[in-house]
Amino acid sequence: DGHAHAASVGDSRLYLLRDGCIYQMTADDSAVGALVAQGLISRAEARHHADRNVILRALGTHADVQVSHWEQPLPLRDGDALLLCSDGLTDLVEDDEIADAIGDRHGADACRILVSMARNRGGHDNITVALLRVGTPAVDRAVAPTREMRVPR
Q1: Taking the CB of residue 65, how many other CB atoms lie within 10 A of it?
Q2: Which of 19, 22, 47, 137 has its CA 20 to 30 Å from the CA of residue 102?
């Protein structure tokens, strides 16, 4: 019904891209994320903190895990985009660079660019990205030609 709902555990992030701006919509369940939330360090300091990869909550570590979730759904607008990504991207690519790379590009193209950016900067971790655009018409893209192969019998 035109609203987004989110639940999260760990340090993968959900971003909202709206009107050319990028907003981090989930909090990292990490030691450094807690320091940022408490105002003890800045987000810029968190990027290079020695404990940035210490995770406080993650799936599979305990039988029960506390899941963070939005209390209220987020009303979506035409043109919004939601990006779900792992820290393999956000450790190496700044938020404003992510927004610039996504721009008005087709989802698959934007995802390829983001993964390439992280790989070119070291790509030391899993780099996962998924992009959902809201209310944008499908882009008419030429279908790549297929290859024919003879199957031995």
Answers
A1: 13
A2: 47
